[in-house]
């Protein structure tokens, strides 16, 4: 039963190497990326064809959302909620032909963790669905 669904072991770590960094990467996301919105979080993402296995995410909390300790707590909650749900997109990048860069952008500080995680999961599921549709469209176009 090595391959059964009950035996799946997920890696819930989020090392710095999987955090999106660099001004150029972030500017490219704002220029070319798609946006998905939830009540308190936006996700701006870009699918990178020809770069399988790459799944980098960043986290932004603007200064207008409160004092430093409030922004830091919001960013920690966003990172943690992504860390617990990263498998929704990382499995696709590892098995597919393209990678993903993305940024979670907080629209409000002080959101309870459960609500933040639910919204994060919803956004990641929508990215997954969009990517699967894109791959299906590419297959239909190639056939």
List the helices and strands and how they pair.
Layout lengths: L22 H10 L1 E4 L3 E9 L5 E6 L7 H18 L1 H9 L2 E9 L6 H30 L1
Parallel strand pairs: 3-4
Antiparallel strand pairs: 1-2, 2-4
Helix pairs in contact: 2-4
Describe what you observe in this structure.
47% of the residues lie in helices and 20% in strands. By secondary structure, it is an alpha+beta fold. It has a four-stranded mixed sheet, with helices on both faces. A hairpin with a 3-residue loop joins strand 1 and strand 2. The N and C termini lie far apart (36 Å). The N terminus is likely disordered.
Tags for this entry?
alpha+beta, tRNA processing, 4-stranded mixed β-sheet, Ribosomal Protein S5, domain 2, 143 residues, disordered N terminus, 4 helices
| Count of DSSP-assigned helices | 4
Kindly identify the CATH topology.
Answer: Ribosomal Protein S5, domain 2
Mind telling me the C-alpha Rg? Answer: 16 Å
- From the N-terminal CA to the C-terminal CA, the straight-line distance is 36 Å
Arithmetic mean of pLDDT:
85
**CATH architectural group:** 2-Layer Sandwich
């Amino acid at each position: 039963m090595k391959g059964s669904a009950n035996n799946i072991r997920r890696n819930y770590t989020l090392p710095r190497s999987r955090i999106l960094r660099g001004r150029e990467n972030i500017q490219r996301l704002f220029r070319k990326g798609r946006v998905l919105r939830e009540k308190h979080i936006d996700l701006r993402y870009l699918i990178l064809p020809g770069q399988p296995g790459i799944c980098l995410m960043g986290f932004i909390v603007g200064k207008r959302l409160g004092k430093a300790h409030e922004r830091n707590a919001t960013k920690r909650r966003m990172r943690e909620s992504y860390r617990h749900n990263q498998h929704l997109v990382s499995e696709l990048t590892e098995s597919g032909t393209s990678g993903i860069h993305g940024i979670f952008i907080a629209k409000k500080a002080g959101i309870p963790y459960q609500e933040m995680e639910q919204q994060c999961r919803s956004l990641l599921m929508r990215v997954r669905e969009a990517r699967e549709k894109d791959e299906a469209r590419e297959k239909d176009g190639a056939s």
